Amino acid sequence: RQKLDEYNSIDDAVNLLKKAKNIIVITGAGISTSLGIPDFRSKDTGLYSRLEHLGLSDPQEVFDISLFHEDPSIFFSVAKDILPTEKKFSPTHAFIKLLQDKGKLLTNYTQNIDNIEANAGVRPEKIVQCHGSFATATCTKCDFKVPGDAIFDTIKSGKIPLCKPCKEQIALQPQVLKRKRSSNGLQNSRKKGTFDDGSDEEDYDIPTPGVMKPDITFFGEDLPDEFGRRLVEEDRQVTDLVIVIGTSMKVAPVADVPSIIPSTVPQIYISRTPVSHIGFDIDLLGDSDVVVSELCRRAGWDLKHSMIPED
Ligand code: OAD
């Protein structure tokens, strides 16, 4: 993406904000760090820097779907510390709500799974949770769904939540045996047939219930359909300003959004750390709560929850 020459300063950003009618806000973990929730990639404080003890080759594997199926305990050992609990929100969340109140918010594409936008009063139809959330959980075997908080106590107690209907099914039919598959997906060859249907003893295993997986989008899983549909079929055509806040923009496809938006639409980047792989028009570097508070002050907007003391 080629930077647009006419926009440079914070006052240009303020003018763009005042003029815009259809703002896309793209957010990441940086907008929640002031609430004590760690981001992922910040050196020393980010979640990934705290996971060395798990012995993974890459800490992102915590959210890898193949590893989850192999050993869900790795994810749940981390999940118990990142469950959304309190009904708090940051000034940056309040800023997104303010854009909504002013009729300027087209969509908030959030990569965050903490659901905190809702605490600030951002309406569900204004939010696309690109990486899902803890709001619901689904059985890995039978797709049974529960509200996310139904499994929070189990997760907090350090256990792996199992699917109740799967458990009941197994309890009802203890004699039911499940067919095992060999690695190439075909039935094992029947060398030691002992069961009365003539099949191999080793083709069977004791059935196990599915694990309840929070509906977070893991690496290796598709994003919710709503992400691509809304971006490409609706928002792309009408947006007149993009604001990216508190994200390293390292994870596709969210990282590709700036290049999907028409090149004439200005884009602002607000974060502690600059990025070099995407050309934004205006970079406002610093704590996002401070930056959005200053933008509102200059725009003459009343940001409840401001970081700037009122005089
Ligand atoms: P990252 O940790 O990669 O990036 C957070 C960015 O916010 C960094 O550039 C920080 O410098 C910045 N930051 C932190 N605190 C800030 C503050 N108070 N004010 C301003 N900036 C601040 O987090 P994400 O970009 O959100 O996916 O990560 C994207 C995805 O990678 C996540 O959704 C997660 C992860 O793997 C899944 O869990 C599937």
From TrEMBL:
Essential cofactor(s): Zn(2+)
Record's keyword terms, sorted: Metal-binding, NAD, Transferase, Zinc
Family per similarity comment: Belongs to the sirtuin family. Class I subfamily.
Gene Ontology MF term list: histone H4K16 deacetylase activity, NAD-dependent; metal ion binding; NAD+ binding
Full-length numbering of the shown residues: 159 to 469 of 489
Gene Ontology cellular component list: nucleus
Active-site annotation: 131 (proton acceptor)
Location of the region described as Disordered in the Swiss-Prot/TrEMBL record: 177-207
Binding-site residues for Zn(2+), renumbered to this chain: 139, 142, 163, 166
Residue ranges constituting the Deacetylase sirtuin-type domain according to the UniProt record: 3-302
Designated name of the protein: Deacetylase sirtuin-type domain-containing protein
